[in-house]
Specification:
Elements lengths: L1 E5 L2 E5 L2 H12 L3 E6 L4 E4 L2 H6 L3 H4 L13 H11 L3 E10 L5 E12 L5 E10 L1 H23 L3 E5 L5 E4 L1 H7 L3 H4 L4 H4 L3 E2 L9 H8 L3 E2 L4 E6 L2 E13 L5 E10 L1 H15 L9 H18 L3 E9 L1 H8 L1 H16 L7 E4 L4 E6 L4 H17 L1 E4 L2 E4 L1 E9 L6 H17 L5 E3 L5 H22 L2 E7 L1 E2 L9 E11 L2 E3 L1 H10 L3 H16 L10 E7 L1 H4 L2 H14 L6 E6 H6 L1 H12 L4 E7 L5 H5 L6 E4 L1 H4 L6 H16 L3 E4 L5 H10 L3 E2 L8 E2 L7
Parallel strand pairs: 20-21, 24-26, 26-27, 27-28, 28-29, 29-30, 30-31
Antiparallel strand pairs: 1-2, 3-4, 3-7, 5-6, 6-7, 8-9, 8-14, 10-12, 11-13, 12-13, 13-14, 15-17, 15-20, 16-17, 18-19, 22-24, 22-32, 23-31, 24-25
Helix pairs in contact: 12-13, 15-16, 16-17, 18-20
């Protein structure tokens, strides 16, 4: 305090420095404190109230350890103070605020000693660093999370400085490079991480170096291979990105590489599966057409000739139906191996259908193509397939077509080759047919193709018409039998009725029979659903089914649904299947017949006697009727062999409990012979001509 005189009195004046100091202490955010030798507070500055939540008077005399979150830290604090000769800076601890939450403090203190250097008190400055500790904790958490993420992810991560020297590697990077982090730190990234291009790809600059040069993100344009050791390597995709500091200066790069080995292998497998047949390993149809398109282009651009062979195996279906699909697949695999030895390495050998193959013979004239095709035909003819102690022979029908500068597209080439193959099959199988313009046989095949379009149009527009033909009971002992009618189909084209002989061959060739069969089934069922139920047992209506229908599980489901839909009496329906179709699909035919017979439906074996082994197979087919092939019946009155055949079939049929029906009964002499033999039913123009179904007199 300073002094001055007034009326001879001396008055003390406040010291400006002390006032300023007091004001500073009261307003400063930090807190001054002092404790005695026992750790009791004997002084705190006003800011202590905000810091602790206690008033200054509550704090004075309070044990400092009462404020500690962890009181045991007091011993550590004193020990460190002693070690530092009575001055301790930047000591951090946490106290408990009066409201209960923690407050982190940064303490700078000094010890107060007596003359004997005994500690008699501590004074110091306290700063609230709770916000900093919170930020620090969050940063630590983020760092831990980042570290855990880097340690957990399967992607390799490497960081470098601006010179491309490695600073950090995560465990995935260590595993894929076979380098430990400590070994790699400080080394050039190209020494530790140096993938090479896959076969067929060009080498590229190291993405990390490109990134350091450009300062921009770099994505490797292709998959590269990273060798871990001589025995193993990874397929990887790489990305390099610059690392910036707060001033946006590049301080290094981070390289991330992803293991795509499994994905690459899966992609290869999918690519292979997309272009190859799974059973034989040959190129599939889609890939064959792609390569054929390339061959057509080379023929146009360079006037090069190629030859396409279309192969259709003969008798493959017999193996498939007799021994099952496993045997069929094995036959295809064995035969494929045999045929590949007769195909040049540069040519394309493909499986284009179930038992159909295509061969693209490149840079080859027609004569050379025929020689190669003939060697393939002979190889197939000489091939023998053994299964379950049975030996099978197969043949092959081959259609050839030339690819030259006049060829249009893949559709035309495959169509002509297929047509030529069909002709080879139609002319007796196990032969070669070369496509030629104005070929009569090819013309016939094209006619059938044209009919296939008309059939599809008729199915879509309901242009088919139902006809029926009545049969006559000619065996006097069978007069109580129901009247037998056969449902027939015609095509209405521009109000002209087309007979089945003109369009059914095309339907069979182009796999349309099952759709026609469905149309017939539905329409016959629909008409019969209107008949008086009392008359059900007086009539049988026969429906012809193709081999493709009764061997298709979906057709059986369709049939059962339609039976229920129209509430059809099974006793009214007889399904006719041809002997040839039944024998070719014996097991499926047996199953189909058995299921529907158990429901009460009848079955007839059509064209019986046309096969070479009719009697052998008859015992396996529990049919109700045998329809004797009309080609045998028509000569019965003038040919002793035909007469004997009909007599034998009739006798066998009766022994097996089946009624017999003779087709092609066109005159009285034939009818008389059939009556003498004892055939049950006659069908032909002498008996009744086919008429529209609606003309049928309803009972």
């Amino acid at each position: 305090m300073s002094e001055y005189e007034t009326n001879n009195n001396i008055i003390a004046q406040p010291d400006i420095g002390e006032i300023q100091a007091e004001l500073f202490i009261r307003t400063m955010p930090d807190t001054l404190y002092r404790v005695d030798a026992n750790g009791r507070l004997n002084y705190v500055s006003p800011s202590a109230e905000r810091l602790t939540g206690y008033t200054c008077s509550e704090l004075i005399g309070k044990q400092i350890t009462d404020l500690y979150v962890r009181p045991e830290e007091r011993g550590e604090f004193l020990a460190r103070l002693k070690e530092s000769n009575g001055i301790l800076n930047d000591y951090e601890t946490e106290i408990r605020h009066k409201s209960g939450h923690g407050v982190w403090l940064l303490i700078n203190v000094r010890g107060i000693f007596d003359r004997a250097r005994q500690l008699i008190g501590i004074e110091g400055l306290i700063r609230d660093i709770s916000k900093l500790k919170k930020i620090e904790k969050e940063l630590h958490h983020e760092k831990e999370m980042a570290q855990i993420t880097l340690n957990s992810i399967t992607d390799g991560v490497i960081t470098t400085d601006t010179n491309g020297k490695i600073v950090y590697m995560n465990p995935a990077a260590e595993n894929m490079t076979n380098w430990k982090r400590e070994q790699a730190r400080g080394r050039d990234i190209q020494e530790v991480f140096s993938p090479h291009a896959s076969e067929g790809d060009r080498q590229i600059e190291h993405p990390a170096l490109s990134c350091l040069k450009s300062g921009e993100n770099v994505i490797a344009p292709c998959i590269r291979l990273l060798k871990k050791d001589p025995q193993s390597e990874y397929a990887i995709r790489e990305t390099a990105s610059p690392i910036h500091n707060n001033n946006n200066e590049i301080i290094g790069i981070v390289l991330v590489f992803h293991d795509v080995t499994e994905v690459r292998e899966m992609s290869r497998k999918l690519s292979y599966q997309a272009t190859h047949d799974s059973h034989t390993g040959l190129i599939n149809r889609a890939e064959f057409e792609k390569r054929l398109a390339g061959a057509i282009k080379s023929a146009h651009d360079k006037q090069i000739q190629h030859v396409v062979c279309y192969l259709d195996l003969d008798q493959f279906k017999v193996v498939n139906d007799t021994c099952g699909h496993i045997a069929g697949d094995e036959l295809l695999q064995q035969l494929t191996g045999t045929l590949q030895t007769h195909v040049r390495e540069k040519d394309t050998f493909a499986r284009v259908g179930g038992d159909e193959f295509g061969i693209l013979i490149e840079c080859c004239g027609l004569e050379s193509g025929i020689r190669i095709a003939e060697s393939i035909r002979k190889a197939v003819s000489n091939f023998r397939f053994s299964w379950d102690n049975k030996l099978f022979e197969v043949g092959v029908s081959i259609g050839l077509t030339l690819v030259d500068q006049n060829s249009q597209d893949t559709t035309e080439i495959l169509s002509t080759a297929d047509a030529a193959c069909f002709v080879a099959k139609d002319m007796g199988r196990n032969r070669i047919h070369v496509f030629q313009k104005d070929d009569a046989a090819i013309s016939k095949q094209h006619t059938e193709m044209h009919w296939s379009h008309k059939i599809k149009h008729a199915l879509e527009n309901d242009n088919f018409v139902l006809y029926s033909q009545r049969l006559q009971c000619i065996n006097h002992s069978s007069h109580s039998e129901p009247v037998y009618h056969e449902a027939l189909i015609r095509l209405n084209q521009d109000n002209k009725i087309i007979p089945p002989d003109e369009f059914l061959p095309a339907a069979e060739r182009y796999n349309l029979m099952q759709y026609i069969d469905r149309w017939v089934v539905r329409n016959v069922f629909q008409r019969l659903s209107t008949i008086d139920k009392k008359q059900d047992n007086q009539h049988i209506f026969a429906i012809n089914l193709s081999g493709t229908s009764f061997t298709d599980k979906r057709f059986l489901s369709y049939m059962l649904a339609e039976i229920e839909n129209f509430n059809i009496n099974p006793a009214m329906i007889c399904f006719e299947i041809t002997e040839t179709a039944a024998i070719s699909n014996l097991e499926l035919a047996k199953r189909f017949i058995q299921i529907l017979k158990n429901m009460g439906f009848h079955f007839a074996l059509d064209d019986f006697g046309s096969g070479l082994s009719s009697f052998n197979y008859l015992q396996y087919l529990p049919v109700n009727f045998l329809k004797i092939d009309g080609n045998i019946v028509r000569d019965i009155h003038k040919n002793d062999v035909s007469h004997a055949m009909v007599e034998s079939i009739n006798k066998i049929g009766h022994v097996m409990g089946a009624k017999t029906i003779a087709e092609y009964v066109e005159n009285q002499d034939i009818l008389t012979c059939l009556q003498d033999i004892g055939v049950d039913y006659a069908q032909g123009y002498l008996i009744s001509r086919p008429a529209p179904f609606e003309d049928l007199e309803k009972p």
